[in-house]
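can u do me a favor
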């Protein structure tokens, strides 16, 4: 998982994998059948914590659907953002590094990752955005979700920048809670603005 996350599928050889594992080169084919099959197993194992993350996000969505309240929907959005950030920032989140690399490079397993990881998470966020802005067109909804995820990824990747410019650790629980509330509130205000804009057009 570490090698694939660091070097990518194409640049990670079977010899690299065998050396890192301390086994004979033939062990990869013996146990998995091929490098491609081993890569799939790595990706599949990545989806285990992602599934738990989605389950936590689903709890927030279910609360919003039950309450049918804008206030609860905004709070659910904050909760989902915080869950996503906590997973991104977790010290053991090697799986996220590999998933993010696959998203960027779009390798052979990309569609599987989209179906099993991004689509379910996107569906949860989409339902919350729809609760906050029911009339928003599909493409605009997609862009709002992209903006939410983009802010989360920036918070994850720019740790050194945050520390240098603002003196904060973007991976600390306190900052994750603070930035989650900000992203959710900023998004909710933006959706209100889009709703008003539509009403005056």
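np, heres the sequence
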């Amino acid at each position: 998982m570490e090698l694939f996350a660091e070097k990518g599928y194409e640049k990670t050889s079977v010899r690299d994998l065998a050396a890192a594992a301390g086994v004979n080169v033939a062990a990869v084919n013996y146990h998995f059948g091929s490098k491609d099959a081993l890569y799939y197993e790595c990706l599949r194992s990545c989806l285990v914590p992602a599934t738990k993350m989605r389950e936590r996000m689903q709890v927030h969505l279910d609360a919003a659907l039950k309450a049918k309240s804008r206030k609860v929907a905004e709070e659910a959005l904050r909760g989902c953002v915080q869950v996503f950030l906590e997973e991104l920032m977790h010290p053991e989140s090697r799986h996220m590094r590999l998933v993010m690399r696959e998203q960027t490079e779009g390798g052979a397993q990309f569609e599987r990752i989209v179906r099993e990881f991004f689509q379910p998470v996107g569906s949860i966020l989409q339902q919350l955005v729809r609760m906050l802005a029911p009339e928003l067109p599909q493409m605009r909804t997609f862009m709002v979700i992209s903006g939410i995820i983009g802010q989360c990824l920036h918070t994850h990747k720019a740790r050194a920048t945050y520390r240098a410019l603002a003196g904060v650790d973007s991976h600390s629980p306190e900052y994750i809670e603070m930035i989650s509330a900000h992203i959710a509130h900023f998004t909710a205000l933006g959706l209100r603005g889009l709703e008003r804009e539509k009403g005056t057009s």
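The CA atoms of residues 58 and 124 lie 7 Å apart. hope that helps!!
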